[in-house]
Amino acid sequence: MLLKEGLCTFPLNGFRKASGHEMYCRILTIIKALKRKKMGIFENIKLLFMGTPAIF
Phi/psi at 8 (nearest 5 deg)? Predict the structure, then answer.
């Protein structure tokens, strides 16, 4: 079964709940945006969790 979240279509097989799949898609979207903008992935994810996102 596939769940479509915007442009994120991945199988739900490894997720127990749709909410886990949704979080995965959101994180993957952030990582793709950081790669596209040639920004450091780990540094910016750290900033995101600290409450000061650099890209959005």
Answer: -95, 105
